[in-house]
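Name: Alpha/beta hydrolase
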Amino acid sequence: MDPGRIAFERHGNGRPVVLLHGLGDRRQSWRSVSPRLVDHYEVFSLDLPGFGESPAPGPKEHYDVYSLVRVVRDFCELHGIERPHLAGNSLGGSIALELGVQGVAGSVTVFSPAGFSDTLARWGMRTVGMVANLATRLPMPLKERLADTPPARAAARIALRGDPSSPEAKATRFGVQGLEPGAPYVRMVPKIADYDFSARPIGCPVTIAWGDRDRTLLPSSAEHAHQRVPNARMVSMLGVGHIPMADDPLTVAEHIRWTCNAADRGAHEHPWLRPLR
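Structure predicted for Alpha/beta hydrolase:
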């Protein structure tokens, strides 16, 4: 994967902040968050390879969490971004944590990161992968019609939004454009189901936030995250689902700024950032 082909937006001035979206999403998922950061930070919002405007990797290229970690690191080196503050949701959260392990990040703020699910949740993700594979066999017009049916829209609101009945959640629907044979979403789902974040030290301030209404990666996963990243500041976001940038962008921005400020004040020496035992 060529880091030079990653589509991104760049706004503001100051210490760099890199925003990483989740599986099947795109950089615009941060559009309500980044304006709350640009007064103090230079904000980079990326389309991960295969999503948004960034081209997908070739069919024979490695395409998993670790290959995305490498290409994001290469992107930062290409653009001269040194020790950026990293923030990510779901898949993007896993990438940010892995880069934190590698010492690339100045701080890490993640929202419902993948890699901490129990056996039942992993079975659920594999089921999603099987359904996605089956959907690749359907004609696109039929998939579009199915995605727009009331049951499918209701399922999307329940899976992705904290309050499925809110007016803001009304337009939520599952995207079907990525449900083609060999598409990035179809390729990545089983990789995420098999991915497990292993306990290793992260030498910078870390915040791990979980929506208490996350029905995609369940809030109980936060317990595993706390065990494997014991130096992390753990946060529960009330009334928030799997994509907190859509449900509560103000609080998302506040948590990112908190972690950035902790790093900029030299909080790596603070007692709560204790070494991993």
